[in-house]
Amino acid sequence: MRSRPILIHLPFACLMAVAVVVRVVAVKGYPSPLWFGDSPGYLTAAIELRPSKTRPSGYSLLLWALKPFHSFTLLVSVQHVIGLLMGVLVYLLVWRVARVAWFGALLAVPVLLPVHQVALEHMLMSDSLFAFLLLAAVAAVLWRRRTTWWLGALAGLFTGFAAVTRAAGLPLIVVILVAMVVRGAGWRVGVAAVAFAVPVGGYVVWFHSAYGEFRMAKAEQVWLYGRTATFADCRVIKPRPELKIMCPERSNPRVSRPFAALWTGDSPFRDVPGWIHGERGNALAGEFAREAIKAQPGDYAKVVVHDTLRAFEWRRVAYPTPWTWRQYEFPEGEAWSYEQATIAGEYGPGGRTKVVDPWSAWVLKYQERVVLPGTVLGVLLLGGLGGVLLHVRSEGRWRVKGAVWDWTTGALLPWGTCLALLVIPAATADFDYRYVQPAVPFACVALAFALFQGDVPKTRSTVRDAALPSSSGQNRAAKSR
Protein backbone atom coordinates (compact mmCIF):
# COMPACT_ATOMS: atom_id res chain seq x y z
CA MET A 1 0.00 0.00 0.00
CA ARG A 2 1.33 3.46 -0.85
CA SER A 3 2.41 5.32 2.26
CA ARG A 4 0.09 8.13 3.27
CA PRO A 5 1.48 11.60 4.06
CA ILE A 6 1.99 12.05 7.76
CA LEU A 7 0.11 15.34 7.53
CA ILE A 8 -3.12 13.38 7.24
CA HIS A 9 -2.90 12.88 11.00
CA LEU A 10 -2.47 16.60 11.67
CA PRO A 11 -5.99 17.02 13.19
CA PHE A 12 -5.24 14.39 15.82
CA ALA A 13 -1.76 15.80 16.42
CA CYS A 14 -3.31 19.21 17.13
CA LEU A 15 -5.88 17.61 19.43
CA MET A 16 -3.14 15.77 21.31
CA ALA A 17 -1.18 19.00 21.69
CA VAL A 18 -4.17 20.68 23.32
CA ALA A 19 -4.80 17.64 25.55
CA VAL A 20 -1.17 17.64 26.69
CA VAL A 21 -1.24 21.37 27.47
CA VAL A 22 -4.43 20.97 29.51
CA ARG A 23 -2.84 18.22 31.60
CA VAL A 24 0.42 20.10 32.07
CA VAL A 25 -1.53 23.08 33.38
CA ALA A 26 -3.53 20.77 35.68
CA VAL A 27 -0.35 19.28 37.15
CA LYS A 28 1.19 22.73 37.65
CA GLY A 29 -1.98 24.03 39.28
CA TYR A 30 -2.54 20.92 41.39
CA PRO A 31 0.81 19.17 41.97
CA SER A 32 -0.80 16.60 44.30
CA PRO A 33 -3.72 14.27 43.55
CA LEU A 34 -7.37 14.88 44.31
CA TRP A 35 -8.63 12.68 47.14
CA PHE A 36 -11.79 10.61 47.41
CA GLY A 37 -13.21 8.44 50.17
CA ASP A 38 -11.51 5.32 48.79
CA SER A 39 -8.11 6.98 48.34
CA PRO A 40 -6.70 6.28 51.85
CA GLY A 41 -7.46 2.58 51.42
CA TYR A 42 -5.60 2.41 48.10
CA LEU A 43 -2.64 4.31 49.52
CA THR A 44 -2.47 2.18 52.68
CA ALA A 45 -2.49 -1.00 50.60
CA ALA A 46 0.42 0.38 48.56
CA ILE A 47 2.43 1.38 51.61
CA GLU A 48 1.89 -1.95 53.37
CA LEU A 49 1.86 -3.97 50.14
CA ARG A 50 -1.22 -5.73 51.45
CA PRO A 51 -4.56 -6.13 49.61
CA SER A 52 -7.57 -4.22 50.84
CA LYS A 53 -10.39 -6.11 52.54
CA THR A 54 -13.14 -4.20 50.78
CA ARG A 55 -12.11 -3.98 47.11
CA PRO A 56 -9.49 -5.26 44.62
CA SER A 57 -6.18 -3.47 45.06
CA GLY A 58 -4.56 -3.76 41.65
CA TYR A 59 -4.33 0.03 41.52
CA SER A 60 -2.35 -0.05 44.73
CA LEU A 61 0.34 -2.03 42.91
CA LEU A 62 0.84 0.95 40.59
CA LEU A 63 1.12 3.22 43.62
CA TRP A 64 3.60 0.80 45.17
CA ALA A 65 5.71 0.72 41.98
CA LEU A 66 5.95 4.54 42.04
CA LYS A 67 6.52 4.78 45.80
CA PRO A 68 10.37 4.86 45.59
CA PHE A 69 10.12 8.23 43.82
CA HIS A 70 8.20 9.76 46.76
CA SER A 71 6.35 12.09 44.42
CA PHE A 72 2.62 12.59 44.10
CA THR A 73 3.32 14.88 41.17
CA LEU A 74 4.93 11.98 39.33
CA LEU A 75 1.92 9.82 40.18
CA VAL A 76 -0.64 12.22 38.69
CA SER A 77 1.63 12.77 35.69
CA VAL A 78 1.73 9.01 35.03
CA GLN A 79 -2.04 8.84 35.30
CA HIS A 80 -2.40 11.70 32.83
CA VAL A 81 -0.14 9.84 30.41
CA ILE A 82 -2.44 6.84 30.78
CA GLY A 83 -5.37 9.11 29.89
CA LEU A 84 -3.55 10.36 26.80
CA LEU A 85 -2.85 6.77 25.75
CA MET A 86 -6.59 6.08 25.89
CA GLY A 87 -7.12 8.86 23.38
CA VAL A 88 -4.40 7.39 21.16
CA LEU A 89 -6.02 3.93 21.31
CA VAL A 90 -9.42 5.36 20.34
CA TYR A 91 -7.89 7.21 17.41
CA LEU A 92 -5.96 4.16 16.18
CA LEU A 93 -9.03 1.92 16.34
CA VAL A 94 -11.18 4.45 14.49
CA TRP A 95 -8.45 4.96 11.90
CA ARG A 96 -8.10 1.23 11.25
CA VAL A 97 -11.80 0.78 10.59
CA ALA A 98 -12.65 4.10 8.94
CA ARG A 99 -9.42 5.49 7.47
CA VAL A 100 -10.81 8.99 8.03
CA ALA A 101 -8.34 11.02 10.08
CA TRP A 102 -10.63 13.91 10.98
CA PHE A 103 -13.34 11.51 12.12
CA GLY A 104 -10.90 9.66 14.35
CA ALA A 105 -9.76 12.95 15.86
CA LEU A 106 -13.38 13.98 16.41
CA LEU A 107 -14.20 10.78 18.29
CA ALA A 108 -11.08 11.20 20.42
CA VAL A 109 -12.28 14.60 21.67
CA PRO A 110 -14.69 13.17 24.32
CA VAL A 111 -11.83 11.04 25.62
CA LEU A 112 -9.12 13.69 25.74
CA LEU A 113 -10.64 17.10 26.50
CA PRO A 114 -13.60 17.00 28.97
CA VAL A 115 -12.57 18.31 32.36
CA HIS A 116 -14.13 15.40 34.23
CA GLN A 117 -11.83 13.03 32.36
CA VAL A 118 -8.82 15.17 33.28
CA ALA A 119 -9.98 15.35 36.91
CA LEU A 120 -10.51 11.57 37.04
CA GLU A 121 -6.93 11.07 35.89
CA HIS A 122 -5.83 13.47 38.63
CA MET A 123 -7.54 11.53 41.41
CA LEU A 124 -5.97 9.06 43.78
CA MET A 125 -8.38 6.45 42.42
CA SER A 126 -8.33 3.39 40.17
CA ASP A 127 -10.83 4.47 37.51
CA SER A 128 -8.52 5.87 34.82
CA LEU A 129 -6.16 2.87 35.05
CA PHE A 130 -9.14 0.50 34.92
CA ALA A 131 -10.57 2.17 31.81
CA PHE A 132 -7.22 2.05 30.01
CA LEU A 133 -6.67 -1.65 30.76
CA LEU A 134 -10.15 -2.54 29.55
CA LEU A 135 -9.81 -0.42 26.41
CA ALA A 136 -6.48 -2.13 25.67
CA ALA A 137 -8.22 -5.50 25.95
CA VAL A 138 -10.95 -4.45 23.50
CA ALA A 139 -8.31 -3.04 21.14
CA ALA A 140 -6.43 -6.35 21.17
CA VAL A 141 -9.57 -8.21 20.08
CA LEU A 142 -10.50 -5.71 17.36
CA TRP A 143 -7.01 -5.00 16.09
CA ARG A 144 -7.00 -7.71 13.44
CA ARG A 145 -9.67 -9.41 11.37
CA ARG A 146 -8.55 -12.74 12.81
CA THR A 147 -7.29 -12.61 16.39
CA THR A 148 -3.83 -14.13 16.72
CA TRP A 149 -2.80 -16.11 19.79
CA TRP A 150 -0.70 -13.27 21.15
CA LEU A 151 -3.48 -10.73 20.70
CA GLY A 152 -5.82 -13.16 22.48
CA ALA A 153 -3.30 -13.47 25.29
CA LEU A 154 -3.04 -9.68 25.55
CA ALA A 155 -6.83 -9.36 25.63
CA GLY A 156 -7.03 -11.87 28.48
CA LEU A 157 -4.15 -10.32 30.42
CA PHE A 158 -5.48 -6.77 30.12
CA THR A 159 -8.96 -7.89 31.20
CA GLY A 160 -7.47 -9.79 34.12
CA PHE A 161 -5.50 -6.75 35.26
CA ALA A 162 -8.67 -4.66 34.89
CA ALA A 163 -10.55 -7.17 37.08
CA VAL A 164 -8.01 -6.89 39.90
CA THR A 165 -8.14 -3.10 39.57
CA ARG A 166 -11.92 -2.83 39.85
CA ALA A 167 -14.42 -5.57 40.58
CA ALA A 168 -16.58 -4.45 37.65
CA GLY A 169 -13.93 -5.87 35.31
CA LEU A 170 -14.44 -9.44 36.49
CA PRO A 171 -17.68 -10.20 34.54
CA LEU A 172 -16.40 -8.36 31.47
CA ILE A 173 -14.16 -11.29 30.54
CA VAL A 174 -17.38 -12.94 29.37
CA VAL A 175 -17.94 -10.06 26.91
CA ILE A 176 -14.37 -10.40 25.64
CA LEU A 177 -14.55 -14.17 25.17
CA VAL A 178 -17.97 -14.07 23.47
CA ALA A 179 -16.69 -11.42 21.06
CA MET A 180 -13.70 -13.60 20.22
CA VAL A 181 -15.96 -16.60 19.58
CA VAL A 182 -18.18 -14.55 17.28
CA ARG A 183 -15.14 -13.28 15.40
CA GLY A 184 -13.96 -16.83 14.80
CA ALA A 185 -10.97 -16.84 17.14
CA GLY A 186 -11.27 -20.59 17.70
CA TRP A 187 -8.76 -22.07 20.12
CA ARG A 188 -7.36 -18.61 20.81
CA VAL A 189 -10.37 -18.05 23.05
CA GLY A 190 -8.81 -20.57 25.41
CA VAL A 191 -5.54 -18.64 25.32
CA ALA A 192 -7.39 -15.49 26.38
CA ALA A 193 -9.16 -17.35 29.20
CA VAL A 194 -5.90 -18.77 30.53
CA ALA A 195 -4.19 -15.38 30.27
CA PHE A 196 -7.10 -13.79 32.18
CA ALA A 197 -6.69 -16.35 34.96
CA VAL A 198 -3.03 -15.46 35.51
CA PRO A 199 -3.44 -12.00 37.14
CA VAL A 200 -6.75 -12.93 38.77
CA GLY A 201 -5.32 -16.14 40.20
CA GLY A 202 -2.19 -14.32 41.31
CA TYR A 203 -4.29 -11.73 43.12
CA VAL A 204 -6.37 -14.40 44.86
CA VAL A 205 -3.18 -16.09 46.07
CA TRP A 206 -1.91 -12.72 47.31
CA PHE A 207 -5.18 -12.16 49.17
CA HIS A 208 -4.91 -15.64 50.70
CA SER A 209 -1.40 -14.89 51.94
CA ALA A 210 -2.77 -11.86 53.79
CA TYR A 211 -6.12 -13.14 55.08
CA GLY A 212 -6.11 -16.92 54.67
CA GLU A 213 -8.97 -16.94 52.14
CA PHE A 214 -8.94 -17.47 48.38
CA ARG A 215 -11.05 -14.44 47.52
CA MET A 216 -10.68 -10.98 46.01
CA ALA A 217 -12.33 -9.12 48.89
CA LYS A 218 -14.00 -9.78 52.21
CA ALA A 219 -16.85 -7.33 51.76
CA GLU A 220 -17.99 -8.19 48.24
CA GLN A 221 -21.66 -8.63 49.23
CA VAL A 222 -22.18 -5.36 51.10
CA TRP A 223 -22.29 -3.35 47.84
CA LEU A 224 -25.25 -5.35 46.53
CA TYR A 225 -26.94 -4.87 49.88
CA GLY A 226 -26.51 -1.12 49.44
CA ARG A 227 -28.14 -1.40 46.03
CA THR A 228 -31.21 -3.18 47.44
CA ALA A 229 -31.51 -0.57 50.20
CA THR A 230 -32.97 1.73 47.54
CA PHE A 231 -36.18 -0.30 47.28
CA ALA A 232 -36.15 -2.93 50.03
CA ASP A 233 -39.41 -3.10 51.99
CA CYS A 234 -39.23 -5.45 54.95
CA ARG A 235 -43.03 -5.69 55.01
CA VAL A 236 -42.75 -7.43 51.64
CA ILE A 237 -39.49 -9.28 52.22
CA LYS A 238 -40.47 -10.62 55.68
CA PRO A 239 -36.89 -11.43 56.71
CA ARG A 240 -36.16 -13.92 59.49
CA PRO A 241 -35.73 -12.34 62.95
CA GLU A 242 -31.90 -12.32 62.86
CA LEU A 243 -32.01 -10.59 59.48
CA LYS A 244 -34.34 -7.76 60.49
CA ILE A 245 -31.37 -5.75 61.67
CA MET A 246 -30.53 -5.19 58.00
CA CYS A 247 -33.81 -3.43 57.19
CA PRO A 248 -32.56 -0.10 55.79
CA GLU A 249 -33.27 3.31 57.24
CA ARG A 250 -32.54 6.80 55.96
CA SER A 251 -32.88 9.89 58.08
CA ASN A 252 -31.27 12.32 55.60
CA PRO A 253 -33.27 12.55 52.34
CA ARG A 254 -30.38 14.37 50.62
CA VAL A 255 -28.26 11.22 50.82
CA SER A 256 -28.98 8.26 48.55
CA ARG A 257 -30.27 5.14 50.24
CA PRO A 258 -27.27 2.96 49.26
CA PHE A 259 -24.87 5.55 50.67
CA ALA A 260 -26.88 5.84 53.88
CA ALA A 261 -27.04 2.06 54.27
CA LEU A 262 -23.25 1.77 54.17
CA TRP A 263 -21.66 4.95 55.44
CA THR A 264 -23.95 7.05 57.66
CA GLY A 265 -25.25 6.66 61.18
CA ASP A 266 -28.29 4.89 59.72
CA SER A 267 -26.11 1.99 58.55
CA PRO A 268 -27.08 -1.33 60.18
CA PHE A 269 -23.41 -2.35 60.02
CA ARG A 270 -22.80 0.00 62.98
CA ASP A 271 -24.41 -2.70 65.15
CA VAL A 272 -22.62 -5.64 63.52
CA PRO A 273 -19.21 -6.81 64.77
CA GLY A 274 -16.48 -5.97 62.28
CA TRP A 275 -18.62 -3.37 60.48
CA ILE A 276 -18.68 -3.95 56.69
CA HIS A 277 -15.33 -5.75 56.87
CA GLY A 278 -16.58 -8.48 59.18
CA GLU A 279 -17.73 -11.90 58.02
CA ARG A 280 -21.05 -11.63 59.84
CA GLY A 281 -21.91 -8.29 58.26
CA ASN A 282 -20.95 -9.53 54.81
CA ALA A 283 -23.02 -12.72 55.22
CA LEU A 284 -26.08 -10.86 56.50
CA ALA A 285 -25.78 -8.30 53.71
CA GLY A 286 -25.63 -11.01 51.05
CA GLU A 287 -28.59 -12.91 52.45
CA PHE A 288 -30.72 -9.77 52.77
CA ALA A 289 -29.84 -8.64 49.25
CA ARG A 290 -30.84 -12.00 47.77
CA GLU A 291 -34.10 -12.03 49.70
CA ALA A 292 -34.90 -8.47 48.65
CA ILE A 293 -34.31 -9.15 44.95
CA LYS A 294 -36.31 -12.39 45.16
CA ALA A 295 -39.24 -10.68 46.87
CA GLN A 296 -39.17 -7.48 44.79
CA PRO A 297 -37.71 -8.31 41.35
CA GLY A 298 -39.73 -5.61 39.61
CA ASP A 299 -38.56 -2.92 42.00
CA TYR A 300 -34.97 -4.07 41.56
CA ALA A 301 -35.26 -3.88 37.76
CA LYS A 302 -36.77 -0.38 37.96
CA VAL A 303 -33.91 0.86 40.13
CA VAL A 304 -31.29 -0.58 37.77
CA VAL A 305 -32.91 1.01 34.71
CA HIS A 306 -33.46 4.33 36.48
CA ASP A 307 -29.87 4.62 37.69
CA THR A 308 -28.45 3.53 34.35
CA LEU A 309 -30.38 6.33 32.66
CA ARG A 310 -28.89 8.85 35.09
CA ALA A 311 -25.68 8.59 33.05
CA PHE A 312 -27.40 10.28 30.10
CA GLU A 313 -28.75 13.35 31.87
CA TRP A 314 -27.59 16.69 30.49
CA ARG A 315 -26.46 18.18 33.79
CA ARG A 316 -24.93 16.61 36.87
CA VAL A 317 -26.96 16.78 40.06
CA ALA A 318 -26.09 16.37 43.74
CA TYR A 319 -25.99 12.57 43.87
CA PRO A 320 -25.38 10.29 45.76
CA THR A 321 -24.71 13.03 48.34
CA PRO A 322 -24.59 16.84 48.24
CA TRP A 323 -20.78 16.68 48.38
CA THR A 324 -19.71 13.51 46.52
CA TRP A 325 -20.26 14.71 42.96
CA ARG A 326 -18.16 17.82 43.63
CA GLN A 327 -15.18 15.63 44.51
CA TYR A 328 -14.84 14.75 40.81
CA GLU A 329 -13.92 18.33 39.96
CA PHE A 330 -10.91 20.53 40.63
CA PRO A 331 -11.49 22.57 43.81
CA GLU A 332 -10.75 26.24 44.38
CA GLY A 333 -8.75 25.24 47.43
CA GLU A 334 -8.16 22.06 49.36
CA ALA A 335 -6.98 21.08 52.83
CA TRP A 336 -6.16 17.50 53.69
CA SER A 337 -7.50 15.90 56.83
CA TYR A 338 -5.10 14.66 59.51
CA GLU A 339 -5.63 11.07 58.32
CA GLN A 340 -4.89 11.98 54.71
CA ALA A 341 -1.81 13.98 55.62
CA THR A 342 -0.49 11.15 57.80
CA ILE A 343 -0.88 8.50 55.11
CA ALA A 344 0.47 10.84 52.45
CA GLY A 345 3.53 11.52 54.58
CA GLU A 346 4.30 7.80 54.69
CA TYR A 347 4.06 7.56 50.91
CA GLY A 348 5.87 10.72 49.91
CA PRO A 349 7.39 13.33 52.24
CA GLY A 350 6.07 16.80 51.61
CA GLY A 351 3.04 15.43 49.84
CA ARG A 352 0.55 17.96 51.14
CA THR A 353 -1.76 19.26 48.48
CA LYS A 354 -1.01 22.61 46.92
CA VAL A 355 -3.15 24.86 44.74
CA VAL A 356 -0.83 26.98 42.64
CA ASP A 357 -1.90 30.16 40.83
CA PRO A 358 -2.26 31.20 38.08
CA TRP A 359 -2.36 27.62 36.82
CA SER A 360 -5.22 26.54 39.10
CA ALA A 361 -7.27 29.57 38.05
CA TRP A 362 -6.87 28.55 34.42
CA VAL A 363 -7.99 25.01 35.27
CA LEU A 364 -11.09 26.33 37.00
CA LYS A 365 -11.98 28.47 33.98
CA TYR A 366 -11.50 25.45 31.74
CA GLN A 367 -13.70 23.43 34.10
CA GLU A 368 -16.55 25.89 33.67
CA ARG A 369 -16.56 25.53 29.88
CA VAL A 370 -15.29 22.13 28.72
CA VAL A 371 -17.59 19.41 29.98
CA LEU A 372 -19.18 16.39 28.36
CA PRO A 373 -22.93 16.25 29.08
CA GLY A 374 -24.25 12.77 29.71
CA THR A 375 -26.68 13.25 26.83
CA VAL A 376 -23.73 13.24 24.42
CA LEU A 377 -22.73 9.82 25.73
CA GLY A 378 -26.29 8.67 25.11
CA VAL A 379 -26.15 9.93 21.52
CA LEU A 380 -22.85 8.12 20.95
CA LEU A 381 -24.29 4.92 22.36
CA LEU A 382 -27.46 5.16 20.28
CA GLY A 383 -25.35 5.88 17.20
CA GLY A 384 -23.29 2.78 17.87
CA LEU A 385 -26.48 0.74 17.90
CA GLY A 386 -28.40 2.48 15.13
CA GLY A 387 -25.44 2.72 12.76
CA VAL A 388 -26.26 -0.75 11.51
CA LEU A 389 -29.30 0.72 9.74
CA LEU A 390 -26.99 2.48 7.28
CA HIS A 391 -25.89 -0.89 5.91
CA VAL A 392 -29.10 -2.89 5.66
CA ARG A 393 -29.43 -1.84 2.01
CA SER A 394 -26.43 -1.88 -0.33
CA GLU A 395 -26.22 -1.61 -4.12
CA GLY A 396 -30.00 -1.74 -4.42
CA ARG A 397 -30.33 -4.92 -2.35
CA TRP A 398 -31.43 -5.59 1.20
CA ARG A 399 -28.79 -7.26 3.35
CA VAL A 400 -30.24 -7.16 6.86
CA LYS A 401 -28.56 -10.34 8.06
CA GLY A 402 -25.19 -9.27 6.67
CA ALA A 403 -25.41 -5.84 8.29
CA VAL A 404 -26.40 -7.30 11.64
CA TRP A 405 -23.61 -9.85 11.43
CA ASP A 406 -21.05 -7.17 10.60
CA TRP A 407 -22.26 -5.15 13.59
CA THR A 408 -22.08 -8.22 15.83
CA THR A 409 -18.50 -9.00 14.84
CA GLY A 410 -17.35 -5.38 15.11
CA ALA A 411 -19.30 -2.77 17.05
CA LEU A 412 -20.91 -5.17 19.52
CA LEU A 413 -17.78 -5.59 21.68
CA PRO A 414 -17.12 -1.90 22.45
CA TRP A 415 -20.85 -1.13 22.52
CA GLY A 416 -21.57 -3.97 24.95
CA THR A 417 -18.58 -3.00 27.10
CA CYS A 418 -19.82 0.59 27.30
CA LEU A 419 -23.29 -0.49 28.33
CA ALA A 420 -21.92 -3.00 30.84
CA LEU A 421 -19.79 -0.31 32.50
CA LEU A 422 -22.96 1.72 33.07
CA VAL A 423 -25.27 -1.13 34.07
CA ILE A 424 -22.98 -3.12 36.39
CA PRO A 425 -22.62 -0.33 39.02
CA ALA A 426 -26.33 0.43 38.78
CA ALA A 427 -27.12 -3.27 39.33
CA THR A 428 -24.59 -4.07 42.04
CA ALA A 429 -23.89 -0.88 44.00
CA ASP A 430 -25.25 2.59 43.17
CA PHE A 431 -24.97 5.22 40.47
CA ASP A 432 -21.92 7.45 40.71
CA TYR A 433 -20.59 9.96 38.18
CA ARG A 434 -17.09 8.51 38.29
CA TYR A 435 -18.48 5.37 36.65
CA VAL A 436 -19.68 7.32 33.60
CA GLN A 437 -16.48 8.72 32.10
CA PRO A 438 -14.71 5.31 31.72
CA ALA A 439 -17.55 4.21 29.43
CA VAL A 440 -17.01 7.06 26.95
CA PRO A 441 -14.05 5.61 24.94
CA PHE A 442 -16.00 2.44 24.20
CA ALA A 443 -19.02 4.39 22.93
CA CYS A 444 -16.73 6.31 20.55
CA VAL A 445 -15.14 3.14 19.17
CA ALA A 446 -18.54 1.43 18.82
CA LEU A 447 -19.88 4.34 16.78
CA ALA A 448 -16.96 4.14 14.35
CA PHE A 449 -17.29 0.38 13.86
CA ALA A 450 -21.05 0.72 13.38
CA LEU A 451 -20.85 3.51 10.80
CA PHE A 452 -18.00 2.11 8.73
CA GLN A 453 -18.67 -1.63 8.92
CA GLY A 454 -19.54 -1.88 5.22
CA ASP A 455 -17.80 1.19 3.85
CA VAL A 456 -14.32 -0.22 3.23
CA PRO A 457 -11.92 1.97 1.22
CA LYS A 458 -10.28 0.25 -1.72
CA THR A 459 -6.79 0.98 -0.45
CA ARG A 460 -7.51 -1.10 2.60
CA SER A 461 -8.01 -4.29 0.62
CA THR A 462 -4.29 -4.90 0.75
CA VAL A 463 -4.20 -4.56 4.52
CA ARG A 464 -5.68 -7.90 5.51
CA ASP A 465 -5.90 -7.24 9.20
CA ALA A 466 -7.04 -3.62 9.21
CA ALA A 467 -10.66 -4.40 10.07
CA LEU A 468 -13.22 -7.15 9.77
CA PRO A 469 -14.64 -6.80 6.22
CA SER A 470 -18.34 -6.88 5.55
CA SER A 471 -19.99 -9.67 3.64
CA SER A 472 -20.93 -7.22 0.88
CA GLY A 473 -17.31 -6.13 0.63
CA GLN A 474 -16.24 -9.75 0.18
CA ASN A 475 -18.84 -10.26 -2.55
CA ARG A 476 -17.68 -7.17 -4.45
CA ALA A 477 -14.07 -8.31 -4.19
CA ALA A 478 -15.02 -11.73 -5.57
CA LYS A 479 -16.82 -10.17 -8.55
CA SER A 480 -13.85 -7.93 -9.36
CA ARG A 481 -11.60 -10.97 -9.51
How many alpha or pi helices?
22
What ranges have pLDDT less than 50 throughout 5 or more consecutive residues? 455-481
Q: Going across the major beta sheet, what is the strand order?
A: 1-2
Number of domains: 4
Shape: globular
Give helix % range.
55-70%
Give the strand tally.
Answer: 2
What is the SS-derived class? Answer: mainly alpha
Rg over CA atoms: 23 Å
Question: In what range is the share of β-strand residues?
Answer: under 5%
Largest sheet: 2 strands, antiparallel
Mean pLDDT: 90
Order of helices and strands: HHHHHHHHHHHHHHHHHHEEHHHH
Organism: Actinomadura spongiicola
Keywords: Membrane, Transmembrane, Transmembrane helix
Protein name: Glycosyltransferase RgtA/B/C/D-like domain-containing protein
Transmembrane segments: 6-26, 72-94, 100-120, 127-143, 149-182, 189-208, 370-392, 404-429
Produce the secondary structure layout:
Elements (H helix, E strand, L loop, with lengths): L9 H20 L9 H10 L9 H9 L5 H27 L2 H12 L2 H8 L4 H16 L6 H17 L6 H11 L5 H24 L10 H7 L5 H4 L19 H7 L15 H17 L1 H13 L28 H10 L11 H11 L4 H13 L6 E2 L2 E2 L1 H10 L2 H17 L11 H12 L19 H10 L1
Antiparallel strand pairs: 1-2
Helix pairs in contact: 1-4, 1-5, 1-17, 2-3, 2-16, 4-5, 4-6, 4-7, 4-21, 5-21, 7-8, 8-9, 8-10, 9-10, 9-20, 11-13, 11-14, 14-15, 15-20, 18-21, 20-21
Give a written overview of the molecule.
Keywords: Membrane, Transmembrane, Transmembrane helix. This is Glycosyltransferase RgtA/B/C/D-like domain-containing protein. With 481 residues, the protein is mostly helical. α9 packs antiparallel against α10, α15 crosses α20 and α20 packs antiparallel against α21. The protein has a two-stranded antiparallel ribbon. The two termini are 19 Å apart. The protein has 4 domains: 170 residues, no CATH class; 75 residues, no CATH class; 91 residues, no CATH class; 77 residues, no CATH class. A hairpin with a 2-residue loop joins β1 and β2. It has 22 helices and 2 strands.
